[in-house]
Amino acid sequence: MKPSRNAFDPRTDPDVPAGMSVDLLKDLHLLTRDGQLNADARRKLKQIRHFVGLLRPALDDALTRYPAPTVVDCGAGKSYLGFLLYELVLRQADRGRLYAVEARDELAAAGAARAARYGQDRFSFVGGEIAQMGGGAGAGAGAGVELPPRLHVVTALHACDTATDDALALGISRGADHIAVVPCCQAEVARQLTMGQSELDRVDAALVRQPLHRREMGSHLTNVVRGLCLTAHGYRVTVTELVGWEHTAKNELLLAHRVHRFERESRLTLSLLLDRWKIEPALVRSLRERGLDPCAPAPPG
Question: Is the pLDDT of residue 111 over 60?
Fold first, then answer.
């Protein structure tokens, strides 16, 4: 049956990425059955498109330097980001491999089935917690799939709270050339500020006395610590906005490129900051457990 002459063509919508499979977007429920974008899907797709655009220099660099670069998307959820990355970058390059790490087995299984349905044979799903991706296979749908030792690009889009730290620790410990994260809720440090208020001087205590201020300060400190941990381990870090604040409140993007300069100043600053605020965020703990203490003296060279 031929479509109506007046049927809507979603490819004419500027928010639908050129070259993206319309059927896949419908399968992901980013397009309605008749090819329309509702307000929520439009907002989501705009964020992902911007993220892919900001990732493009890192992906192009990896594709230039390596014959088959490895990209890992952490805390993938339904893997909207992963499917767009594959369609818009890796499929067009005809090389490179993408892994999506997702703790919920049902989402990992659905993602793996969808990738197979659309012929994305270099897109694998690993079921399990990001923090457990030390070298063994994942669980559930990803059983038998392992992340390779060498990772080139590690991403996390709105991985919740300390899952972002797990993604950063994975990227740092595996020597990823590029790491890009857009954090989501960040509650851990705010809780630590609650417990450590009595040890703060009166000025710092005033900054976190009110719950709203404490939550905002906790988020800010968390991302400052993340940036310092990255620079302490040889990365150059850029902090910017993902999209306009009207689209999402979770909008801070940390882009890191490994340049092999282990900054002594960053390590000292981080140590002083942790001591001043009486905090030990998840990323610091995770790196210390891996023998990569970001406050320890920088390696020679």
Answer: yes
Domain ranges of the chain: 45-103+149-289
Fold classified for 45-103+149-289: Rossmann fold (3.40.50)
CA distance 293 to 204: 26
Q: How many CB atoms lie within 10 A of CB 87?
A: 20
10 and 25 Cβ atoms separated by less than 8 Å: yes
Which residue bears the tokens 């490994």?
258
Nearest of 25, 30, 60 to residue 178 by alpha carbon: 60
Q: Return d(Cα 160, Cα 143) in angstroms, integer.
A: 23
Helix, coil or strand: residue 230: helix
Please give the radius of gyration of the chain, using alpha carbons only, rounded to the nearest integer.
20
Predicted TM-score of the model (pTM): 0.90
- CA neighbor of 80 nearest in space, from 17, 162, 146, 133: 17
CA distances from 57 to 75, 177, 178, 257 (A): 22, 12, 10, 10
**Confidence bin at 47 (pLDDT 50/70/90):** confident
